[in-house]
Every structure is written in structure tokens, then in C-alpha cells.
Design brief:
Blueprint (H helix, E strand, L loop, with lengths): L1 H26 L5 H9 L4 E6 L3 H14 L4 E5 L3 H13 L7 E5 H9 L24 E13 L24 E3 L5 H10 L3 H12 L4 E2 L3 H9 L5 E6 L3 H6 L4 E3 L3 E11 L6 H11 L2 H9 L3 E2 L14 E5 L1 H4 L2 H12 L3
Parallel strand pairs: 1-2, 1-3, 5-6, 5-7, 9-11
Antiparallel strand pairs: 3-9, 4-7, 4-8, 4-9, 4-10
Helix pairs in contact: 2-10, 3-11, 4-5, 6-7, 7-13
């Protein structure tokens, strides 16, 4: 009698555990993107996207999303990354959240996270991304590669640069443009190429002696280069060039080496359209969404999705969260070298 009760007890426990597992699995079953879309449509058919996405790419990417999810229109708030941060922080201080999703270079996403403005949650699609491409509240959507480029009508064939050190040559004096906030160039050189701060600074000082002209905004840089306002660009984005070259623009770019920066994406903690925000987060990081990024001219971060155009350098110097933590140190040195305020 005693043994029987003991056996029955164990059977009861096993069955109960199995039932609990079944209930838990049912409760935790991932909602499909199409089910999420149904909820998103109930939020007014609007999605506010705070993102640094060039118009040439936005014109292709955003309509793909709108076609995939009829009835939802994307309101793209386009500005430089620092202006988007300032805008979002200012709105939050005023007690408002107007954006649904925030997508900028990783350092700006980290800024937003430190302000407590982003949702501490990752979509299930994040599972296939490496740890270096995601955090507790963000996931890498795409890579942007900072590379050198030049105007082919102003640069002779035998002058074309093969490596970054080539820009220290006196032939480039008063012929270079760059983005004043691209501290990642110094970080990459110091942490990866030279693994030595002093060597990186010495090289940068030699380049700085050529009197670089700085302009804010990478889109502006590439247009200045196409227009022949400068012979070469020290810190342009690789994805800006394939479409322009196809249209006959007199430019070329260097893919022997480049700085790999990560564009991170996160949902706002108090997004006015939470289901729509989450719909974008899931779609944008799925293979389907990442292929849309590729078609629009961007370089997807998804491990199984390749870029359509030649945008990935042979040698990549990546800039991740660890490097970003030392950003202030390198920014100070960068500004000192180029005498920037």
C-alpha cells in the first residue's frame, strides 16, 4: 500500500510538470508578424521612425514596408543622429514621446539607452545575431562602412589611394573633405589597425597637415564630391557610391579597408504606437526585412543576408560598444588633432 501511494505520487508529479510545460509553451508561443500586423492596424495606421536613413535609401526601403503592411504609413523623421537624440531627449523632458522607433549609429543608441528612453526588449529575430550585434535594448540593423573616396576627374589614376596612410602625402593638401564627428576613424586605427594610440595619432596628424575641410552630414559629403568641390573624401559611407556610379557620377571608392560602424535600432519605451513599433522591429531584423535593406542599398547586419552592392571592405575595423565606452577620450584627441570645437 505504501509503495503504491509513492508510485502514484511520482506519476502525479510527472503529469503535472508535463502539463505545466505545455501551458508555458502555449503562453510563450511567439506571435506571428501577421498577427502583430493586425494589432498594429488598430493603432491608427501610423509609424514614426526616428532614423538616419538617406533619402536615396528611404525612397526604396519604406515603401517596401508599407506595401508589405497595407494601411500603415511611415512618418520618417530624418536628421543627423545628434539632432535626433537632442530632439527625443527634449521631448521626453517635456513629458512626451513622439517617436516609435529610434535607429542611428550605435553610439547614439547607447546615449538614448542611458537616458532610459528605450524599451528593454529584443525581438525573437535577434536570436541569430551575434552578441556583438545586440544588447538588452538594441539590435544591429545594418553596417555602415566609413571609407575613403575620390572624384575621378580630379584624381589621376596613379594618385588613387590604396590605404588610409596615402592621405598623408602632400599631394592631398587642400583637396580633402571629411565629417567632423567621425571619431570612429581614430578609434579604429588605435584599437585595430595599429593597436597603439600614439601611432594612430601620429598618422592622423600627418593627414591633418593637409588642411581637411569639414562638412556635417555624409549625404552632403558625397554630393560635394560628385560635384567636384573636393578631390577626395576621407570619411564617406561606402553605400552612397554604387547607385551614384551607376548613374554616371565621376567617383570611385576604396574597399581595401574601412571602419565598420553599427547602426542600432530600438523601440521607444513609451512609443505611441507600440504594436507598430514592434512590427518594425521584428520585420526589419527578419531575413525578409534585411533583404529589403539590401535592395534599398544598405548593408544588412543579418548573418544570412548579403548586400546587393559592393559596400563591404576587405579589411574591416569594427567599432562596437567596448570602443564606444572610450569615445569621449578619443573624441578629445580627435578634436585636438583637427582643431575642432
Amino acid at each position: 500500500m505504501f509503495v503504491f501511494r509513492r508510485f502514484s505520487g511520482w506519476v502525479f508529479v510527472i503529469v503535472t510538470a508535463a502539463c505545466l510545460q505545455l501551458v508555458a509553451a502555449s503562453a510563450g508561443r511567439t506571435q506571428t508578424i501577421d498577427d502583430l500586423y493586425k494589432k498594429a492596424k488598430e493603432e491608427g495606421g501610423k509609424f514614426v521612425y526616428y532614423g538616419v536613413l538617406a533619402q536615396i535609401n528611404a525612397a526604396k526601403l519604406l515603401p517596401i514596408f508599407e506595401k508589405r503592411f497595407p494601411g500603415i504609413k511611415v512618418d520618417h523623421v530624418d536628421a543627423t543622429s545628434d539632432k535626433l537624440v537632442a530632439r527625443a531627449v527634449s521631448e521626453a523632458r517635456g513629458g512626451k514621446t513622439l517617436g516609435d522607433v529610434f535607429s542611428t549609429p550605435l553610439e547614439n543608441v547607447v546615449q538614448m539607452g542611458e537616458q532610459g528612453l528605450l524599451l528593454e526588449k529584443l525581438p525573437p529575430e535577434a536570436a541569430v545575431f551575434s552578441d556583438r550585434l545586440k544588447g538588452s535594448y538594441w539590435i544591429g540593423t545594418e553596417y555602415q562602412f566609413i571609407i575613403a573616396a575620390w572624384n575621378t576627374t580630379l584624381v589621376k589614376k596613379d594618385e588613387e589611394p590604396k590605404q588610409l596612410e596615402d592621405f598623408a602625402h602632400p599631394r592631398w593638401k587642400n583637396r580633402l573633405i571629411a565629417e567632423p564627428r567621425d571619431v570612429e576613424l581614430l578609434i579604429a586605427l588605435a584599437r585595430d589597425k595599429y593597436n597603439d594610440d600614439k601611432k594612430a595619432l601620429d598618422m592622423l596628424k600627418r593627414i591633418a597637415a593637409n588642411n581637411i575641410e569639414f562638412h556635417k552630414g555624409h549625404s552632403q559629403l558625397v554630393e560635394l564630391l560628385v560635384a567636384g568641390q573636393a578631390a577626395a573624401c576621407l570619411t564617406c559611407y561606402s553605400h552612397h557610391f554604387p547607385p551614384r556610379i551607376k548613374k554616371g557620377a565621376p567617383v570611385n571608392y576604396m574597399l581595401s579597408e574601412g571602419i565598420g560602424t553599427i547602426v542600432g535600432t530600438a523601440a521607444f519605451k513609451n512609443a505611441p504606437h507600440p504594436n507598430t513599433a514592434w512590427l518594425w522591429m521584428r520585420w526589419a531584423h527578419s531575413e525578409e526585412g534585411q533583404k529589403a535593406y539590401a535592395v534599398s542599398g544598405r548593408t544588412p547586419a543579418h548573418p544570412k543576408v548579403e548586400p546587393v552592392e559592393k559596400t563591404r571592405p576587405a579589411k574591416i575595423y569594427p567599432v562596437g560598444v567596448a570602443e564606444i565606452k572610450d569615445f569621449a577620450k578619443y573624441e578629445k584627441l580627435w578634436k585636438e588633432v583637427f582643431r575642432l570645437r
